[in-house]
Amino acid sequence: MRWWLPDAGSTFAGPIDALFLAILIITGIALVVVEVGLVTFVIKYRARPGRKAFYTHGSTRAEVIWTAIPAVTMVALGLISNHYWVLIKDKKSIPPNAYHLGIHAKQFEWQVTYPGPDEKLGTSDDFTVRNQLHVIVNQPTAVDLTAEDVIHSFFVPEWRLKQDAVPGMHIMAWFQPTKTGEYEIGCAELCGMGHYRMRARVFVHTPEDYKAWIAQQAAGGSE
Amino acid sequence: MQTQTMTDAMRPPFPAETGAGVYSNKLGMWVFLASDVMFFTALIGSYIVLRFGMSSPWAQPGAVLNVPLTGLNTFLLICSSVSMVKAYAAIADGKKYFLRKVPGKTLQDGGLKFWMLITIICGAGFVGVQMVEYIKLVGHGFTPAGFREGSLLAEHALADPVKYGAGAAGMYGSTFFTMTGFHGFHVTCGVISMLYLYFTKVLPEKYSAQDYRGIEVIGLYWHFVDLVWIILFTIVYLI
Amino acid sequence: MTAVAHKSTSSHHEPMSFWRKYIFSTDHKIIGIQFLFVSLFFLLIGGLLAMQIRWQLGFPNTPMPGGKILPETMTNNGVILPEYYIQLVTMHGTFMVFFAIMPLLVGVYANFLIPLKLGGHDMAFPRINMWSFWLAVLAGLIMLSGFFMPDGAPRAGWTMYAPLSARPDLSGATISQKLWSISIVVLGLSSVMGSVNYITTVINHRAPGMTWFRMPLSVWALFITAILAVLALPVLQGAAILLLFDQTIGTHFFDPGAGGQALLWQHLFWFFGHPEVYILILPAMGMVSDIIANGSRKPIFGYHSMVFAIIGIAFLGWIVWGHHMFMSGMNPTLGSTFMVSTLLIAVPSAIKVFNWLGTMWRGNLRFHVPMLNALGFVSMFTIGGLSGIFMAATPVDIPLHDTQFIVAHLHYVLFGGSLFALFAAIPYWYPKMFGRMMSERIGKVHFVLTFIFYNMTFFPMHIIGMGGQMRRIYDPTIYDFLKPQQPLNVFISYSAFALFAVQFLFAFNFLWSLKFGKKAPMNPWEDNGLEWSLPNPAPHGNWAPNTPNVYRGPYEFSSPEAGDKDYLPQTLKLPTDRDPVPVPLPAGGH
Amino acid sequence: MKVRIFSVVGGMLLLTACSKGNQSSGAPAAAAPPAAAPAAPAANSAAGGTITGKIKFTGTAPRNKAIDMSEEATCKAKYKTPPTEETVVSGPANALANVFVYVKAGVPAGQKFTAPTTAVVLDQNGCRYHPHVLGIMVGQPLEILNTDPLLHNIKAVAKSNRPFNVSQPSAGMKTTRTFTAPEVMVNLECNVHSWMHAYAGVRPDPFFAVSKDDGSFTISGLPPGTYTIEAWHEKFGTQTATVTIAGTESKTQNFTFAAR
Fold this sequence. Notes:
- The complex is a heterotetramer of chains A (223), B (239), C (590) and D (260).
- Chain A is α+β, with helices and mostly antiparallel strands.
- Chain A folds into 2 domains: 13-91, Helix Hairpins (Orthogonal Bundle), CATH 1.10.287; 97-221, Sandwich (Immunoglobulin-like), CATH 2.60.40.
- Chain A contains 3 helices and 10 strands, in the order H-H-E-E-E-E-E-E-E-E-E-E-H.
- The longest helix of chain A is centred in the first third of the chain and has 32 residues, at 13-44.
- Residues 1-17 of chain B have low confidence and may be disordered.
- Chain D has a single domain (2-258), classed as Sandwich (Immunoglobulin-like).
- Helices cover 13% and strands 38% of the residues of chain D.
- In chain D, strands 5-11-10-7-8 form a 5-stranded mixed sheet. In chain D, strands 1, 13, 16 and 17 form a 4-stranded mixed sheet that branches. In chain D, strands 12-2-14-15 form a 4-stranded antiparallel sheet.
- Chain D is globular, with a radius of gyration of 18 Å.
- The model of chain D is unreliable at 1-45 (pLDDT under 50).
- At the A-C interface, helix 1, helix 2, strand 7 and strand 9 of A face helix 4, helix 12, helix 13, helix 14 and helix 15 of C.
């Protein structure tokens, strides 16, 4: 039983989890303030014979305070978040040395296109493997997301990575795995009756293993 | 919906806070028009997004659509707007009659009955012409799905893809028929409401210089529909 | 004019046939009650669908009790099929949003309260009002009929994302997808008619002395809501029509193959959809404000800032729709802008929450059932609002988007918010509707149990959402990273069943009190509102032919002027008060 | 190459052995009869003529595409040798299996045949359809069975018939469908496993058969007359021949496809 976000598997996990924690603390404080206030008032000011409520229409000071505090917090939060948002989603932040893959989503499978030994997409030695994403650890990787029929969403929880694949669009998403091992890809956008079954495996290899795998695939292993 | 608004036209406003300073039917119509604006915004907005998000060019103006005929139709609709104003002016001066001789004038002076009739005829005429246009377009092979296989237009498009916007034909048809169709629907609703008013209120001379709210309210709607058409005509036919 | 006026108003009192009085009634109160029954029915349907969803998520691949009675296109000897599961999530969302919560808040209370609280005889356009109700019923029936189509109900989620919704060969539902679009167009028409009515009535049909800033917050909220509806629903209608044309006459709006754009649907839908979210919460906030002021026997704290908060939320509601599309491939720069505007909504929301607390502060709290549920609303809405901040911060949204976390969030706002507000509002105005009180004892039991099971149901969803469980998946157990948290899913399911069972207490209380509830006194809650100056239930035509005079705001509780009483009705004329001058509306076309 | 194909067939037979409960419909070899068998009794009782034949192909059959089943452990486990698709299943001496042979024309138009009530079974086992090609009469029940403990959805891509798309998330699920109009062929596919394909020949009469592994087929119960026989193969296309039947004689009609 897990009570927290999945284990960190990519460079995004650090900032995102930290931000998550920060928001959890901020909202936690707000929640405690409100709920405790509510409960105390409920007990303290419950109706008793002879009591009469204090007649007031409010106080501008109070209004200003509880307008300003949230406003400031939110703007600050917005600025911090935006920094990481740009880092993760903006096309310009894709590292130049990124290794490029193509992922084509269709009902209900993920088709991953690999550049083959020449490490270039769109060449004759490209090959496509179904429902298997093989990547290199600590290697920035950029995927070109496309969709065949309907909208799908490419989701790897451990990488804190989610990006819709939209028919008629080429969407770039990048990530940098930090741990070798096996993960799962899920589809996070309802895409039909097989939506829940649109599952694929992610294999994060050491560079050597990856080379070996590519070679074996290129040698017609996929046949 | 229109007819409903109209049937409430005679319900009197009872004492209330100053509010908007206009009687409820007019206010209600304004609010409804605001929502109708949003409706057409959705359609026109989608049209702009789709047209300019498209890689292949749209058909050139007049290549597929019959601009002169529609121009004539536009003129017809504008005339109906003018006659609507005349009708409004007429009843504001209490002229309930159809035509009346005015000493010293060659032309007879038109009253509410006359100008409303003109408006209805122009409106109906507009719808009629639009139907004819649709029939002809579909005949040539222009459908909401694009150019029909093996139709006249499909051949033209093969011969001159740029002029006929072969690549964008599907979207062209989709947007054209949806937008003009819904405008036509609005005009039809207006004409029906006006006919209803004509027989229930205008002919029985229910309107007077003191109370002619029904005319003003339908007038608002009518001018709005006219305005929308001017926009549609510009962006769909001319650009 | 006035002559006509008296004729028509007096006509209110002529005895009418049952048919005219209760079925095709033009009386705003009857229409409100009609809406109440119809939307409670749809609420029940939505609940039943939810139970089936919970069964599947808790106990995948085990035959559902009574599942065998469903046709083999939905279940296979009792086991829910994936295609049926998708229908369930789709229709649960659709019914709850469009046919339960929205009509319950707007259809029922805008109709019932606006004229009563403003001192009007009826809506500005009673006939249009009637039409708006019957169109809503028609829309509901069209939507419901989807289940009886050969290939079942719509299957593209309540958000109907194209192209899935536009392509029957991909969704697997041919007829019912079209029915969805048609139903939404009809519903949109109904809502627009209704809202035109509410807006006009609020502006023009206020009793003398009922100035803008003497209007109760419930009316303010309903007024702003109506403005949102009148501007938002046409957009949805437009979108639904484009979708319908794609499905029927072969247009290509959402078909990327022919230059259409899949994202266009999302932009149109959420441009409507986010104001819709506030359509679903603002009236709740308004009514809760009234009830909390009444329960605390204190004027609402910061009335004006409450009003401006409502307006602020409504305004911001128009510029945040993109936060539903952070992962959709929309330009990230747009994402940043939408994030900021979204986070700013926290401000007016916070203002409201703190003002409710301020209202309770040094009050003299009476814990009648409406007050209890209103307090439930405040505490639950707070959680819902705060959990929204996680998704508003775009980077944090990445792992949470389209997971159970968002499901938890929206249920904290829609159930913990809107529905608790309704559990407060229904018993509060019940006497005004039916002349009897709902049972306080049952009401209190219902509140406590609902509050407990509600939190047991929806709070754990945050956790499985953090764990990464996607929305609308039929069987989480096939994923290695979701298997470990399955026990929590089972727990949620059991709590959900309990929560559903508890609601029958409410249903019983509601129906039983219709006949056996204790007769309501003139002003059961000792409230200041205009409506309580009328007998229970209020007669057709309300105060007609005359109109009440309003001398003060709606929240003058415990005012020193009130003497020994702790409330001061808006219509009560004190020696110090002067009569407001009625301003007759301009006649004719000028 | 041959060896490979043999091994495939071997694998399938073996697969029949290990798949519990439905031996009868385990492998295509065994599955062909249930498809054709119900046809015989349905034919008009007067035992008419019979057409038998063998189907061969010339040239070398293309290599069937291998299926990477690693994602479906339970399916993979059912195979000793790596499973392949069943585009071309050939027996000894270039015998061609999975060819749908039917009477295309010649059956009197007015003549009506009652569809047998016995269902044709389409089994999803080891993430493949068994049989791969089947014949069925209009109105005859098609029982779709899932032997795999995982989701299959069966999407029927049809023109004259109403397309359907059913899913079976767990083992042992049965769904029955019938076809309303003759159609050669209705394609059946699974969107979860894109390699899964099956073909159903829907006929108004019982005069059809699917060639076995040895390439043989038998159409019986034919009333006297002249018939156009068509043989359909998913990869090699179609071939037609004309056969005249007098009385209860038995004619032989072989087909030879060119591999491509």
